[in-house]
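#data-curation
PF: Archiving a pair of folding outputs for the training set. Convention for this channel: one message per protein, sequence first, structure tokens after, nothing in between. First:
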Amino acid sequence: MRAVLLAFVLSTFAVGAVADEAWYPSKYGKDDTLGAVNNLSPAIVVEAAKLVKTGKTYSLGVTTGPDTPAYGTRNYQIFTEASIIGEPLGSNKASGTDDFLATWMGIGSQLDGLGHLGIDFVYYNGNKEADILRPHGLLKLSTDKIPPIVTRGVLLDIVALKGKPLAPGYAISKADIEAAAAKQGTPIRKGDVVLLHTGWLAQLEKSKDKKAFLDKEPGLGKEGATYLASLGVVAVGADQWGVEVLPFEVESEAFPVHQILIAKNGVHLLENMNVGPLAADKGYEFLFVLGQPKFAGAVQAVINPVAIR
């Protein structure tokens, strides 16, 4: 009996270990470092460009500054000084200024790269932290390696679906995603960037309460994240700082949606997206354009994507 029990326990642990490791290697190949960006193609760009009818553009980024609400100890500082000391140069009296920026990359409107969040020190496609992390930047999975993301964008207006801004702690589900897409007539396709309108960023603009903005938020739930990843989306963004719901659906967990999308499926996250103007215009389908800054070895990036209708 003891031998049978021992065999059962060992087999159970073995199955658990296999389940824990089943999220890598990636379906895009054991050496892949791009994740769901692999779903982009020139044909998708051409089709997405056909969505431009009016030429109206929308800045999806918010202004990043010293008062920007930021996770943990992240902060922003800029130093501006005269770049030319002494008299102006030349007969035309040229003068100018320079600036020096000291900031965390994960502040304001930001792109989370595939080296940002993992599972037990293992990141996208089985890359171990000890192998890729160095004080001068990531050796793999850094945001400077991401190609331009130009594709069809879909705004899922969950506020319009529910008839009001979402309450903090509301987890957006698969049913919510399907209902919003059906209501808008915008089915989600492989290669899309999906943005969620929760109304949370607008609440910050009204209240100016940074602590309340950071303490809790509505956002994507685990079921919704798994569903979007299964559709082959390239990136998921939202109008709040973490994309996922807070408090977390399971009290003992931390950032499970980040793990589902980034680590397990190679889907990038776009945080603090200014989608209010798009929602006001019912701009549910658009050309999405992002050329992220190419800072070598960066984990994240401050961004300003553009939606074009």
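PF: Second:
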Amino acid sequence: MDKVPAPAPLISVVIPLYNEGSHLRELLSDLRKALQQTGCHFEIVVIDDGSTDDTWARIQDEAGTLPMLRAMRLSRNFGKELALCAGLERARGEAIVVMDGDGQHPPSLLPTMIEKWRTCGADIVQAVKVKRGRESVTSKAGAFLFYVILNKLSGFELKGASDFKLINRKVLDTWLAMRERNVFFRGMTAWMGFRTIQIPFEVAPRRAGKSGWSYLRRAKLALIGITTFSSFPLRLVTFAGMIFFLFAVGLGIQTLYLKLAGRAFTGFATVILLELIIGSLLMISLGIIGEYLARIYEEVKGRPRYIVSESIEPEQ
């Protein structure tokens, strides 16, 4: 008796967008061509993260010709990670592909990712950067330093990792159960520990425009990544306090001995230097503690992670 072939799965492609209107049509066209090669059913879920250009108007135009397009417009710019949450919470596929909307994640890689998922039994197919593309020296150095620190503090190796990945429904359901408001998608998927296979890719040039990732936004994401995956900086404060306590005890014993021996000296420069060092350490320590308190404060407020102002759903 012939074996009945399994039905083609539904693939969801989730793409956060911010001021990507100038090249949206080309991106969706390339996505459609790549997905049609897979023989799977598919839907494309796009999230307009409070764009200030004509991104939403372009999405509305494309929705008339792409029946598989689903879209949401957030009430303001909530940031890529939270926009990604909005898309993932609405994805209906058996496998979900996450990618950026600037064209640096090549749609041509989708057939390979989907084939790997269907044949290798992996829960996550992760695209790993072999070349970071056109980036300034400071950007590359900052990314390298961040991943080194995160690896040492958390134990997760994320060097070369990106948000360009395929996850199956089991992984998505597990991820959705984590209702954190300080979201770091690539770190959270690594933390879950599902079976992962990697495929290399080269970061393509942006299709148009400039990156919305300023140094300040990158620094903020780095702080979220480090503080949500490791408490070591807090332990570092305690360790530094113990070192200075031992130093203070030793200095106190020396000062008392010199006083009793009649050889005490004013030591004005030494006192000023110690005050500056201790004062700097206290300010840094308070800053580290403040970052963790900020994460706690944002979690306990319980506000929604994002607000949807408009949405587009295809007719059933």
